[in-house]
Amino acid sequence: MLFRLAWRLFTEISPRLAIKAGWLWVYKGMGAVRAYRRRLLRGEVFPPFLFLALTNACNLRCHGCWIESRGEKHSLDSEDVDRVIAAGKRQGSYFYTLLGGEPMIYEGLWELIARHPDCYFQIITNGMFHDEGNVERIRKLGNVTPLVSIDGMAASNDDRRGPDVFEAAVAGMRRLKQRKILFGVATTMTSRNMEEVLSDEYVRFIIEQGAMYLWFYVFRPVGADPSPHYCVGREQMIELRRRLLELRRRHPIMLIDTYWNARGEAVCPAALGMGYHIGPRGSIEACPPLSFACETIHAEAEKGSGTFCRNGPDGASHKRCLTPFPPNDNDNLFDTINQSEFLRGFSKFVNERTRGCVILEHPQELVEFLKASGVKDYSGRDALAELAAGTPRGSHDMKGEEIPEDYWVYRFLKNQLFFGMSGYG
Ligand code: SF4
After folding, report:
1. Is 420 a pocket residue for ligand 1 (Cβ < 6 Å)?
2. Nearest CA to ligand 1 atom 1
3. What's the 218 CA to ligand 1 centre distance in angstroms?
């Protein structure tokens, strides 16, 4: 597989773009992981990587999406995004995932990316905006990899995403391929499309479109339209894991998951503090589907947040003082995240219950934890009520039936290298 993948990289990706990805994504990604681990040893919390939800605006209404795109529109201020990235760089973090809503709707997207040539950006997109102009911008910038959301072949994909979405996204991928751009496909596995998306035919189809990596997600029943019938059961989860390992040996494409470490044990990236989500209103959230926060990038002490401030009598921080930090002082993003009782509390809450996903396994307890933490709901809906109405179910924690990585390439990637969201070793 490795030689065939290397040949694809050599023949299908522009050398300039491959070198940029190797340096900015892989090499600097390894540095970010090492810096993250050193922080952990010092008892500090700051992720090697951040999700930036640039806007909640979107042109689609997919089933099971947690973003409220019908109501009020919210977008991150580009100066704030610059400050967040600047704060991240000071911690050695140079990789940022841009999402939404639909990030390619965000005004000033290309200027933002151009202002940070020393960073690498992954754009999670529904693939409807890869016209000639945008594809050429991506090629010119060079520090961008689109991740196109496709959930099966036309029928399965459009069943969740809407009519004609598949066709438009595939047309866009062909333009990316023509310009030798490094891109990937993100596929959400559901109880309905699992047979299809974990087949040799599907993986071959994705390779033919020119994608170099295929990132698999497992469906979460969240949002205003949670669609729990799409959830994957325990037997399906074990089968899914087994087939993923088989496909990895057979196909010249990186098949990514962020659910299991090299030993096949479940991981929750949010509980490990590996990647926090900055919402379109600046909220600092534990993970994308959970639109709750106590702090924002505006460093204002949210009521009840327990954020420490620096205005204590002796200059040292003290608790619940409610004295807001100077506005827009994102230099303080490290402090805000590192001292967040909520984010540290979330890790402890998860680790005391599961290695898997608390949204699936403990929705009601999660609601109690969130209420006790004094969070603010940034969903634009009553997301606490949505969670409380959830049925507890199994997640990717397959206790007692773990299936370790059986291919050295993925063992290495999961232990050492930036893989999805860094080393889970
Ligand atoms: S809480 Fe669930 S969805 Fe969020 S990062 Fe953890 S495993 Fe993933």
Report:
1. no
2. 357
3. 10
357 CB near ligand 1 (under 6 Å): yes
Closest Cα to atom 8 of ligand 1 = 268
Which residue has the CA at smallest separation from atom 2 of ligand 1?
357
**Beta-carbon contacts of residue 11 (< 8 Å; ≥ 6 apart):** none
Encode the chain (425 residues) as per-residue pLDDT tens digits. Answer: 999 999 999 999 999 999 999 999 999 998 999 999 999 999 999 999 999 999 999 999 888 888 866 678 999 999 999 999 999 999 999 999 999 999 999 999 999 999 999 999 999 999 999 999 999 999 999 999 999 999 999 999 999 899 999 999 999 999 999 999 999 999 999 999 999 999 999 999 999 999 999 999 999 999 888 889 999 999 999 999 999 999 999 999 999 998 999 999 999 999 999 999 999 999 999 999 999 999 999 864 444 444 434 444 444 444 434 334 344 444 589 999 999 999 999 999 999 999 999 999 999 999 999 999 999 999 989 999 999 999 999 999 999 999 999 999 898 888 776 544 444 43
Q: How far apart, in whole angstroms, are the C-alpha atoms of residue 261 and residue 32?
A: 18
Report which of 425, 418, 363 is spatially closest to residue 48, judged by C-alpha positions.
Answer: 418
pTM: 0.90
Q: Which atom of ligand 1 is nearest to the CA of 287?
A: 4
* Helix, strand or coil, per DSSP, at residue 258: coil
How many Cα atoms sit within 13 Å of 398 on the Cβ side?
22
User: Of the residues 216, 274, 287, 421, which should be mutated to test ligand 1's pocket, given the most ligand atoms within 8 Å of the CB?
Assistant: 287
**CATH code of residue 378:** 3.20.20.70
Strand blocks (E) in 284-396: 284-285, 292-293, 376-377
Question: CA quadruple 373, 101, 355, 157: dihedral positive or negative?
Answer: positive
Q: Give the chain's domain count.
A: 1
- 47 close to ligand 1 (CB < 6 Angstrom): no
Structural domain including 215 reads 1-425
Q: Give the Cα separation of 194 and 238 in Å (integer).
A: 12
Which residue type, as a one-letter code, is found at position 277? H
Q: Which two tokens stand for residue 341?
A: 């009782």
What is the token pair recorded at 293? 């926060």
